[in-house]
UniProtKB/TrEMBL annotation:
Keyword Chloroplast: no
Full protein stretch here: 250 to 615 of 615
Gene (name only): glmS
Cellular component terms (Gene Ontology): cytosol
Function of the protein: Catalyzes the first step in hexosamine metabolism, converting fructose-6P into glucosamine-6P using glutamine as a nitrogen source.
The protein's Enzyme Commission number: 2.6.1.16
List of catalytic residues: 361 (for fru-6p isomerization activity)
GO BP term (any one): carbohydrate metabolic process
Catalytic activity: D-fructose 6-phosphate + L-glutamine = D-glucosamine 6-phosphate + L-glutamate
Name the record gives this protein: Glutamine--fructose-6-phosphate aminotransferase [isomerizing]
Keyword Cytoplasm included in the entry's annotation: yes
Amino acid sequence: EKGGYDHFMLKEIYEQPRAIQDSYRGRLLADQGLIKMAGVDDNLEKFMNANRIIIVACGTSWHAGLVAEYIFEDLARIPVEVEYASEFRYRNPVITDKDVVIAISQSGETADTLAAIKLAKEKGAFVFGVCNVVGSTISRETDAGAYTHAGPEIGVASTKAFTTQITVLTLIALKLAKEKGVFSQSKYHEFLTELENIPSKVEKALLSNDLIEKVAAVYKDATNCLYLGRGYNFPVALEGALKLKEISYIHAEGYPAAEMKHGPIALIDEQMPVFVIATKRGHYEKVVSNIQEIKSRKGKIIAIVTEGDETVKELADHVIEVPETFESLTPLLTTIPLQLLSYHIALMRGCNVDQPRNLAKSVTVE
Ligand code: M6R
């Protein structure tokens, strides 16, 4: 049932090219220059008239929500707030019938996310679900939605659910960008075509597995790690850190790279591995100067870079390449090596990769 893989997590990491494709199949019609999503098409007015979009989720799904915030604001120019469902539900939040709430949940059973949805509905908001499990409670409780179609995710550490959530949310943002006239037909077409290239680029990113295993062997005994990224890749840094914590039990923190000098920089010494997402475009030069700051404090730098990068290679202890793509689509690629790194490190530490201690696949109690 693990399809020849040692663990579900590894199988699910490798399923991503296919899962991403499944998440846009029948929706992304690049040749016709069209995105068809029934849940959005049927409620287009709600989305177009929304004052803002509020995204509610937990854990990895919350990280996908953060990526979506960058995408919706950057591409579709719609204001977005991303909320931990657990905080939102108890905060007496301001919600009106002009708000669109998007709830993201792999399982569709997360108690806090469900409660946040109920609250938003009571206040008159239109609630849209992005779930993986078909027929789940959240998919039934929402007014409309789009499934991620990632297939069953068994490993407790979420992998393909994350990349397919981002894909589905990107489709929605692109659709709204086009609808709002923020995007020209040609720009729209370029994006649709590039999105179709993503599965093969993920495939290529997966080819670094052997290199990543070697890097994992170097850092497997670390007690603390930092993950840094900027812009679209800041949420990827958070996700990389969460993945490492939950399956390897190594303490890890994700930060926006520029925040480092507001505190975490004090932690850096020769014992500290720092994973930096430093892909081309997207504040590249600024990330490079952050890398220099780490280097001058003797931190160990493992950088995720764009194929062919020479600058960071000079500075970093290890570089792992991902193919080039549009800045807004980079999270779909930069996430891959970080998933593999956590997997290998956890395995080398003898941890139960698929069922980490203290954790359940779906958190149905608050
Ligand atoms: O099923 P959900 O997407 O609602 O689950 C949310 C979180 O519990 C989940 O993403 C959790 O953080 C994962 N174990 C992370 O890998």
